């Protein structure tokens, strides 16, 4: 038809239904169910995980919300972030199939009535959950899983029975109030905003999904909708629910409500079933990210669930008190209910109590989870705590986004690595192979040329494709320390200006990522990056030795272009703050070298490839803790590091914002007086480490050898390995390579 497939692919909108890494690790998914002869499960899950589950032959049902508007589109206007609605469904979505025949009711508000016959939740408001199914095929096998996303619909009698004489039009218009539940994704990454609509969203996905799971559990025969099973004894053998962060935590009280109130299972049995079914993955240690819902809001929206949470907590505290008599401090710390001005429900505590397994997402993070975040819970039940280091799918993050590199690898070791990434180890014996070194370097150069052309075409930005592509892409957050990168850029700029005749390694520094719309400091960081770019990029003395580009609207489709082109990957969070990171793994697999702190999965990347093959710098977790005990004083560093002082003074004085000299006063004030993430403490080590990067980049052959070593050692970071560990250690199932025979073959 004369159409170019690549051109067609470019037109398709991203389904941006999640935030940051948990968004890809859980693109839209609150929960997920897997079909298996032995078992099915349900959990909060990811795009990478869904791909791996299908590829591993775990037949899964992924559940989440079909947001009408996903993560906002980011525009940069005069250097500032401006948000635009992401109308991703504007031209329709050919991959989804609406399933009105499986529509389910979800209840809110109302009141609770206790009677001898049991408990009734009455006079509720009803919203309907309409499922949309998207197929998720495994790689070169015949497993096709389903992602089921729920959309909110008002029932046809919505508001019409509210005695509103003649208010028919108003009643129909009020349908929007119900349908707003699935209207828009809350765009916060690592930050809790206790909004009622968000709590409604969390209950909506949980209530619809659990009804679906239980319907499927009760029908023994495929395609049969009549309930067959009546006993819930075997429920945990057939279903596993993985809570991907605390967002689907309401699955715990909701499952209890269904078992106790609806199915009339006695409390202790119901609690045993619930705990055996649920498991919880923690994704962050930042206190401001933990979900703590006000009891008053919870009571209004979910009165029966509040009673259940109180009952769970009472039994839990009785148990703790029996083991630690007189330790009231421990009871207070371990309670699900936080007392204070505003009583709150700590959803993380609810998850830990209601689950049979709790895991972090990188080894160092899982240790922090045990030693600080959930220390009391770990002392109570140490056997419950595990680690599951995150991974990424090599199908999307190598084969699809970097076909040139994939081909180069296939030529050397075959294509088995695409479903068993550990086979990349075979490349280790070829590290000094001249032809491989040449091919890997050439593929990188082609990717850089292609990305340079893209930047020029889309943004009118000209970059030097032979410069080092220094890339820092992730959500904008103080803990991710884009400001540390900015200070290095300003330092490089000052060095060039001071001695223009000196030979500098040319760099193109690319920084990209979205800031939550209400996060003022993150928006200031974006403005700082663009302002530094305005000065540096137009300074004739600098020429093309240093360029600073802010990558607008960073999203999966842009990541697929920039990651294969990167030379240097920046992973520079303060040690102990990034749970895992997954971008770090994508860069490693695509032939970039990492400059990073000993944080998250960087620690295991250094262990796999050898620390000498990464550029590791800065405080370790122990150093950060020691500095906290001593008291972090940013001024000490400012006073004794002249290059740091110069850079900070330039930012503060308006050198980069001449039209608004005070623009960055607030940023500098934060760095000097209340920087939780210790940017100045790592500045000296970072700048020195960057000099080592320059030094190695001057020797392309040695650089490329390190690249090959990194690629060869990235096998551990496949989501296939991660999902296999979840399956064996938490869900109690084995991945299977069994293929269904084609229909043409006679059946046994």
UniProtKB/TrEMBL annotation:
The modification N6-(pyridoxal phosphate)lysine is found at residue 586. InterPro entries: Glycg_phsphrylas (IPR011833), Glyco_trans_35 (IPR000811), Pyridoxal_P_attach_site (IPR035090). Its EC number is 2.4.1.1. One of its GO terms (biological process) is glycogen catabolic process. One of its GO terms (cellular component) is cytoplasm. GO terms for molecular function: glycogen phosphorylase activity; pyridoxal phosphate binding. It is an enzyme of class 2 (transferase). Keywords: Acetylation, Allosteric enzyme, Carbohydrate metabolism, Glycogen metabolism, Glycosyltransferase, Phosphoprotein, Pyridoxal phosphate, Transferase. Homodimer. Dimers associate into a tetramer to form the enzymatically active phosphorylase A. Glycogen phosphorylase that regulates glycogen mobilization. Phosphorylase is an important allosteric enzyme in carbohydrate metabolism. Enzymes from different sources differ in their regulatory mechanisms and in their natural substrates. However, all known phosphorylases share catalytic and structural properties. This is Alpha-1,4 glucan phosphorylase. It comes from Eschrichtius robustus.
